[in-house]
């Protein structure tokens, strides 16, 4: 058949698929870490025509009143109503609608499998299981596109309310069966794209809606078909499966009207025409380089930190030298006695204003004896037991001396000298006069005499004198002396 020389005719043999996309395993975009994703990688013009289409022909069952919306609103609302969409992401989508559309575009590429789950879109990502890629054309706002695994989890949970109770349809035939039964829409737009992107249904879709060698996933690859025509074919498929059978498709063209079930005609491009699409502006190229350099600096810091940690693990720092215990203080008995002796320093008077009695005596030994304000402490020395060179003291002087110099906690046998013995003798003489007999007489008949019982008496009452009364303590004139062992009043 002869063709006009300037007419654009559909010829399947003119479609050229790049060699790296001939196999389905190479469908995802392949880029190294920190390498930016260009507009050609994303097929940015295709995404633009899909989300910029103004036709409000899709039923949004998630919105109140089930209004008719365009594809952009349908897809964004499906992501927003996903049970895996975080509150932070929802707030950002409401606050910045531009970010919501950018997120929806990157989600659509994840939906069809172009974005692999090993990709991330923030430079501070540390895990080695993912690679960072700046996306200059879809990161115009300050929102976080997160990473591909989170995006895919959000997509998996974007279902209709009825699909949480039963499994959603998983084949094109099941979707047609639900729409034929009156369930409009038969499934969510996200689940529909998952079904159409499945390798199990690629042959069915290619035979039903495309001419060889085109299939559904070729719409998202950098091939020599115009972006606008591919976007129209995609929207035609969305309406075809989400609407009731027999409904007129608003995306039909003359070719699809004549050939029911076929997508509209897609226009092929020459090599020069392909170069005019998906061109990266200079500012996006510069921003991608900047983010790649930032990623390199972050990785270098991370490597340095890991290297230092490995060195510390292999060569741990030496343990600090053990601190020597303080030398033990060895004091002689004389030094300890000199430390204990000052009584005024064991219980110092309190300087507080709350009339406190001061702190109780502690068991800590001071490092050095403090001087006694009243009389210097004397270091105990060998006493002169003979008493030569010392003058006798009165009882008052000796009591004052004992109060200032003798520690009651020490054994009194170590402090015996002539003055102490003299003081003991004086006390014994006083006791003898009080008792009326010499101290410690020998017991009679080896029997211990019973001690006299004390009988309480009323104060200031003089009892009548009775001869032989053992309790008479006030002798009368001319009366005989009391028997030995009885107390009597001594006149000083």
Question: Which features would summarize this protein structure in a list?
Answer:
492 residues, disordered C terminus, two-stranded parallel ribbon, Ino eighty subunit 1, Ies1, disordered N terminus, mainly alpha, two-stranded antiparallel sheet, 2% strand, 16 helices
Report on the architecture of this protein.
The chain has a domain at 27-293. The chain is built from 16 helices and 4 strands. With 492 residues, it is mainly alpha-helical. Mean pLDDT is 76; it is low at 1-15, 19-25, 349-366, 374-388, 447-454, 456-480 and 482-492. The radius of gyration is 56 Å and the shape is elongated.
Question: In terms of structural class, how would the helical and strand content be classed?
Answer: mainly alpha
Describe the strand arrangement of the main beta sheet, using strand numbers.
Answer: 1-2
Q: In percent, how helical is the residue content?
A: 25-40%
What composes the largest sheet? 2 strands, antiparallel
Termini gap: 162 Å
Mean pLDDT: 76
The number of helical segments is: 16
What's the overall geometry?
Answer: elongated
Strand content: under 5%
H/E element sequence: HHEEHHHEEHHHHHHHHHHH
Using DSSP, what is the number of strands?
4
The residue ranges in which pLDDT falls below 50 over 5 or more consecutive positions are: 1-15, 19-25, 349-366, 374-388, 447-454, 456-480, 482-492
Rg, Å, rounded: 56 Å
């Amino acid at each position: 058949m002869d063709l006009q020389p300037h007419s654009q005719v559909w010829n399947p043999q003119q479609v050229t698929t790049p060699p790296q996309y001939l196999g389905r395993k190479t469908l995802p975009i392949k880029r190294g870490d920190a390498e930016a994703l260009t507009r050609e990688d994303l097929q940015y013009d295709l995404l633009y025509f899909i989300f910029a289409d103004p036709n409000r022909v899709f039923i949004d069952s998630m919105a109140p009143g089930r209004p008719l919306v365009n594809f952009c609103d349908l897809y964004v609302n499906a992501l927003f109503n996903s049970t895996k969409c975080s509150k932070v992401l929802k707030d950002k989508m409401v606050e910045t609608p531009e970010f919501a559309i950018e997120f929806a575009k990157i989600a659509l590429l994840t939906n069809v499998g172009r974005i692999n789950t090993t990709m991330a879109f923030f430079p501070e990502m540390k895990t080695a299981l993912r690679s960072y890629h700046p996306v200059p054309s879809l990161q115009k706002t300050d929102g976080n596109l997160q990473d591909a695994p989170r995006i895919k989890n959000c997509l998996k949970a974007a279902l209709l309310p009825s699909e949480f109770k039963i499994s959603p349809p998983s084949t094109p035939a099941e979707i047609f069966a639900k729409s034929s039964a009156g369930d409009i829409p038969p499934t969510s737009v996200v689940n529909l794209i998952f079904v159409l992107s499945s390798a199990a249904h690629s042959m069915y879709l290619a035979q039903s809606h495309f001419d060889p060698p085109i299939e559904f996933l070729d719409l998202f690859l950098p091939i020599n078909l115009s972006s606008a025509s591919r976007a129209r074919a995609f929207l035609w498929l969305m309406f075809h499966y989400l609407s009731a059978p027999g409904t007129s498709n608003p995306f039909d063209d003359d070719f699809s009207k004549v050939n029911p079930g076929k997508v509209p005609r897609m226009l092929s491009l020459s090599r020069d025409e392909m170069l005019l699409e998906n061109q990266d502006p200079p500012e996006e190229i510069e921003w991608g380089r900047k983010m790649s350099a930032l990623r390199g600096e972050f990785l270098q810091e991370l490597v340095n930190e890991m290297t230092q940690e490995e060195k510390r693990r292999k060569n741990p720092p030496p343990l600090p030298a053990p601190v020597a215990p303080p030398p033990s203080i060895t004091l002689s008995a004389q030094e300890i006695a000199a430390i204990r002796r000052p009584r005024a320093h064991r219980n110092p008077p309190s300087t507080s204003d709350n009339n406190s009695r001061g702190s109780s005596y502690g068991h800590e030994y001071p490092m050095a004896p403090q001087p006694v304000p009243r009389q210097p402490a004397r270091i105990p020395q060998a006493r002169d037991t003979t008493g030569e060179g010392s003058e006798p003291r009165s009882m008052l002087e000796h009591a004052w001396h004992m109060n200032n110099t003798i520690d009651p906690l020490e054994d009194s046998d170590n402090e015996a000298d002539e003055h102490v013995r003299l003081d003991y003798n004086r006390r014994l003489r006083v006791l003898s006069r009080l008792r009326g007999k010499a101290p410690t007489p020998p017991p009679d008949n080896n029997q211990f005499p019973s001690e006299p019982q004390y009988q309480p008496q009323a104060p200031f009452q003089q009892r009548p004198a009775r001869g032989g009364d053992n309790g008479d303590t006030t002798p009368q004139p001319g009366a005989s002396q009391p028997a030995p062992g009885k107390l009597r009043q001594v006149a000083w």
